[in-house]
Amino acid sequence: MSEPRLQGLIPEKLRVRSARIMLESLAVQTDIGFHDFEVGAPQRLLVDVEIWLDDIVAPPDEDPARAWNYDFLRSEVQEIAASRRFNLQETLAHAVFERLAAFRGVRALRVRTSKPDIYADARGVGVEIASFDGLWPDC
Fold first, then answer.
1. What angle do CA 16, 24, 26 make, to 5 degrees?
2. Nearest to 74, CA basis, from 98, 94, 107, 100
3. Alpha helix stretches (DSSP H) within the chain
4. Which of these, 106, 101, 130, lies nearest to 21 by C-alpha position?
5. What confidence tier does 6 reach under pLDDT thresholds 50, 70, 90?
C-alpha cells in the first residue's frame, strides 16, 4: 500500500523551484601541470560538480531509472581525468564541463577543480567555470 500524499499544503512561496545534484571533492589522480617537476608525476586533484536539473520533481515511486546515477557521474569525471595529460586545470575543467553539459536534463552546470597539495598554507588552488553569471543560476 502506498503512503497517502498530502497536496495543497505547501504555500506557493515555498514550492520547489530548482533541483541539483552534486559531486563534492572527488579525489582523482591526474597528470597535470606545466612545470618540469609536474610532468609525468600524477597529482591529486579535487573535482566538484553541481548540476541543476530541468526536472525538479522527485522521480515517481522512487524509481532509480529516472534519477541521476551518481556512479555514472563519478566514473565520467574519473575517465576524463585519466584520459590524457593536462597542462592546466582550466583545460581539465572544460573537458568535464563539455561532457556533462551534453547530457539530457542539465539546466545549469558548475565545475570546480582544486590542487590541494600545492601550498601548505592553503586548502587548495583551483579554477571554477559555470554556465551562468554570478553565484547561482536563474533557474
1. 150
2. 100
3. 70-83, 89-101
4. 106
5. low
Distance between CA 138 and CA 52 in Å, rounded?
A: 10
Amino acid identity, residue 135?
Answer: L
CATH of domain 16-130: 3.30.1130.10
At which residue does the C-alpha cell 560538480 appear?
49
**Can you give the pLDDT at residue 33?**
81
Burial group, residue 133, by CB count within 10 angstroms (0-12, 13-18, 19+): exposed
Rounded to whole angstroms, the Cα distance separating 7 from 9 reads 6
Domain ranges in the chain?
Answer: 16-130
CA nearest neighbour of 136 among 24, 56, 18: 18
- In this predicted model, what pLDDT tens digit does every residue of 29-62 receive, in sequence order? 998 888 777 677 889 999 999 999 998 888 888 8
Return d(Cα 28, Cα 92) in angstroms, integer: 12
